[in-house]
Design goal:
mainly alpha; Beta-clip-like; Serine Threonine Protein Phosphatase 5, Tetratricopeptide repeat; 3 domains; two-stranded antiparallel ribbon; two-stranded parallel ribbon; 11 helices; globular; H3K4_H4K5_MeTrfase; transferase
Length: 257
């Protein structure tokens, strides 16, 4: 039991190129890093290799920090999660100021609670039929809550992400682009500076714009993703190589036009 608790408290969630969880691993030296909801470093994986990347200038003697949890959730939920899994309360400036909590839960409460419950029910769809059910549920909720929830509400944002994923899996590229484009401003708000999740979202939207022959828009979106990813992932990461390839393809098409 003691070993189990040590693993639970010190393990890292291993993610793939799409930032989806694929497992957990123990990296003893990285377990020495402390938490901040506004960290100066991020953890990136290349296969099972863990990479520690700084995302802003670090002063001599300044502590290196990472975020143990998803920073998108409101302060009170972050505190509960940190206490439940890691047995401490965070006192970083983000938590002290409860920054952006009002935006995260903006809109009518009964509406975002319904969306929250619906989002929590989605469990990794596998088949086409399951993805169709997810998309239909998202479309119905967004239609009924059109004037009640802004896209900056975090549960509305998660639903847009699910709708985008569903459309991609159903090969409805134009509709996927519609939902993906709506997520970009909320992502900019909640993941400012250099954040891997924002870079990945920009890359996904840029690829969708490319698929719809929107080459000028795609190039601008991919450039924005590149500027973030060169910091969060570095030039040698496989995801960065894939981004550079599609960016160069887009640039070649633009030169011919």
């Amino acid at each position: 039991f003691a070993l189990f608790l040590q693993v639970t408290c010190n393990c890292f969630t291993i993610s793939n190129g799409e930032m989806q969880d694929v497992g957990v691993g123990l990296y003893p030296s990285m377990s020495l890093l402390n938490h901040s909801c506004d960290p100066n470093c991020v953890i990136i994986f290349e296969g099972y290799q863990l990479l520690l990347r700084s995302v802003r200038e670090i002063q001599i003697g300044e502590e290196l920090t990472i975020s143990y949890i998803e920073s998108l959730i409101p302060t009170s939920e972050r505190q509960k999660q940190l206490m439940r899994q890691y047995c401490f309360e965070c006192d970083c400036l983000l938590c002290q100021n409860q920054e952006k909590d009002a935006e995260k839960l903006s809109g009518e409460e009964h509406a975002w609670k319904e969306v929250r419950d619906a989002v929590d029910e989605v469990k990794c769809p596998k088949s086409k039929e399951e993805w169709e059910q997810v998309l239909t549920r998202c479309q119905n909720l967004m239609s009924s809550n059109m004037s009640r929830l802004p896209d900056t509400n975090i549960y509305q944002l998660k639903m847009l992400d699910w709708a985008m994923d569903a459309c991609i899996n159903l090969e409805s590229w134009e509709e996927a682009l519609y939902y993906g484009s709506r997520t970009l401003e909320p992502y900019r708000l909640y993941y400012p500076g250099f954040h891997p999740l924002r870079a990945l979202q920009l890359m996904r939207v840029g690829k969708l714009q490319y698929s719809q022959d929107m080459f000028p828009q795609a190039l601008e979106t991919l450039k924005e993703a590149y500027n973030i990813m060169k910091v969060t992932h570095g030039p040698d990461h496989s995801l960065m190589q894939a981004l550079m390839e599609i960016k160069e393809q887009c640039e070649a098409i633009m030169r011919k036009q």
